[in-house]
Structures are given as C-alpha cells and as structure tokens.
Amino acid sequence: MDRRGALALGAALVAGRARAQAPRRMGVLLNGAPPLQDTFRRPFFAAMAQDGFVEGRDFVLEPRFAEGQLGRLPGLAAELVAQRVDLIVALGGPSAAAAKRATETIPIVFAIVTDPVALGLVASMERPGGNITGVTSLDPRQADAQFALLRRVFPGIERVAILSDDTIPGGDADGMAPIDRANIAAARALGIQPQVVKLRGAGPGRPEVDFDAAFDAMAAAGAQAVVVLDTPIPFAARRRIGELALARRLPAMFAGGLRDGGGVITYGTSVAATWPLMASAIARIWKGESPGSIPVQVLTRRELVFNLRSAETVGIAIPPALLAEADAVIR
Question: What is the pTM of this model?
Fold first, then answer.
C-alpha cells in the first residue's frame, strides 16, 4: 500500500470511529405538544441510563410534536425518516401508525397504544414482526373493572358519559373504536346507560378542541359521572378536562397514572410504568436484537387513587372501605 492509500485508510478508520462514537439519534413522535420534561423526558432518561444509555453521551432526541393536529403526523414521521434517525419512539396510536407507514427499516418502539394488534401495528403480541415493537397498557378487563368500581362508589348510578376522541383508528360503522366498544359493553353489563362523547381534534377550521361542547352534551344527556379514556386528546388535555368536570360538579374517573387530571377517581394501568419497559426494548434493539422479534410488553397492574378534595367539590363521599383499598388518597 502506498502512502496515499495508507493516509486514505487512516482517515476512513478515524471517520468510522467518530461515527461509532457519535450519539445515536432517537426520533420521538407525539400526538400532543411540548414540554416533555416532567411527563416523559426525566423518567425516560433515568430508565435509559439504567440500561446503560445516557442522554447526550449515547443518544440525543429529535422530537416532533403534532400539537393535537393529527393530520400533521405523516409529515412529521417523514421528516424523521429523512433525518435518518436511528430509532423512532412513537407515543400514541396515531403516532405509531404514522411511523409504521413512513418506514419499514428504522426500528420503531411505541407506547400509550391501547390494542396494537387491532390497530394493525403488529402481527401478534408475541411476534410483532417487521421493524416495530412496544409497550401497551392493554388490559382486556380494565373497562369492566372501572365500571364495577364506579358502581361501588355510586351504587345508584344510571348514566355515565365516556369521553373519547375521533383520532383513534379502528372505528366501526358508528365510529366506535375498540376501546369505545369495550367501555360501552362494560357499562351495559352493569345496567348503566353509556353515552360516548367524542372530542374532535384540531384541524382546518377547528383551531381548538371544543371541550365545553362535550360537557354540554354530557349535561344534556343527564350524565352522572364521566369516564375519561386514555386516548390521545383526553390524555393531553386531562387537566383542562378535570377542571371542567369539577366546575360542572361531575365526578370524573381517569386512567391509572393520571392523578394530575384532578379526577375524583384514578384507576387502571399507569403510563408512568411504561417508560422503563420502553427503555428496555430500545436497549435490546441497540444491542442487536430485531424489533420484530421482541414481544410487545403488557402493563397489567392497576393503580387506584381517590382525590378527596375533588370529591368534596362535586359533593360526594367515598366509602371508607374503598379508601382502605386505595394505593393513594389525595386529601
């Protein structure tokens, strides 16, 4: 090898080492808006560090926010693909679907997805296939458990609003997604009349979600409580929804981990428990495993929290026996 060839080889080796040492770029695709600091960034970074990947040293984030305008997600996913990120984290069903459509090669890890099989994200929970895996809080009995708990808190309850949104894929001819249908069935099984109220995402001609109209519809139907589903719009706007429920003296039940919504009841699997499982999947991928061979991880433990301040505001009392069963009581 002559001197010029040796120099070229040396330069290539140096460049190769630089590329190997450069932090990986992790695209993050979200249905909602910033900031990420409290709800995702801090706990996720801590979980990644436990698996040996430190933010700034081993990876950097490339976040993209739809800010509630889900029609932007395909374009944002395409941006991440064009940026040649090393992996895409997709939070929410619409984000995961957009990422899956955008690339068949870049690994995708999803979370905050109710039923990844029903949404067509994975072939099966055990063998997702392709370039995607993730974490789900899919609990086939969550809706049944929530309505059974409502019946215990309010023995005479007859009408319950189910707050969902129109962004969820998999709707039937009536526009009801799998999570909507599960809650309708759970209510009817206990003799409770369900009313599904769909929030409409922001978009052309709709700069904001009309939460007041949703609560007006609940009042018109005589709803005695509202079950707030863990779907994209209610998840992002839980504090606003909680404030409106209190103002209207309507007891609200949020999904597990969403006690900051201010509902009287928080019950179900917790989104906060998602981050360590998602970090584990990412670590396995970056250590050489194929995403499609990593089973979708399922959260099953339900968390029960009562907020007595909110209960007092809406004028109800929580039975002492139920308070004794709670994981936490906010006084």
Answer: 0.75
